[in-house]
Write a structure and sequence with these properties.
Length: 156
């Protein structure tokens, strides 16, 4: 997992897919339409969505096998809990249709971070994550983007 400011993306020595993702992210604003964006077909694409943040109790962690996520908030703010997949208890086996498997939240994640506009979280397949969490005690509307990069394009 990497947590950083958007402006620091060039500090990471990843392949061209990393650059393509951040070039795309630089084009988004809080007014960008909610939809799927094709960057390089199924190799690199993005999903812009909105939802209300929620409390972590009863929520599930997720992980992905085929894609690395870069998640960033366009408006609002959300909390993330993260843990390692091998420390989790499986709740729902891997489903290729949603490219995810889900894990029970037995205890809080090993890492908790708040994500605001101008920051990003990058998640590897071994990073179980629970985005969309409330910061404080009030739910708020968040608009965010998730860029999905096929893992082979970034991992050696």
């Amino acid at each position: 997992m990497i947590i950083d400011k958007m402006e620091n993306w060039k500090q990471y020595n990843f392949a061209a897919a990393w650059q393509r993702a951040f070039e795309f992210l630089a084009t988004l604003t809080p007014d960008s339409p909610e939809r799927r964006y094709e960057i390089e077909g199924d190799n690199i694409f993005a999903l812009v969505m909105s939802y209300k943040t929620f409390a972590p109790q009863g929520a599930l962690f997720e992980s992905h096998r085929d894609y690395i996520d870069i998640q960033s908030v366009l408006s609002g703010a959300e909390g993330f809990e993260c843990s390692f997949v091998d420390d989790m208890t499986l709740a729902t086996p891997y489903d290729s249709a949603v490219e995810a498997e889900f894990y029970k939240r037995i205890h809080p994640g090993q890492t908790r971070v708040n994500v605001f506009p101008g920051t990003f979280v990058m998640l590897y397949p071994h990073d179980a994550h629970m985005p969309g969490l409330m910061i404080g005690s009030e739910s708020e509307l968040v608009k965010k983007v998730v860029v999905k990069i096929r893992k082979e394009l970034l991992m050696h």
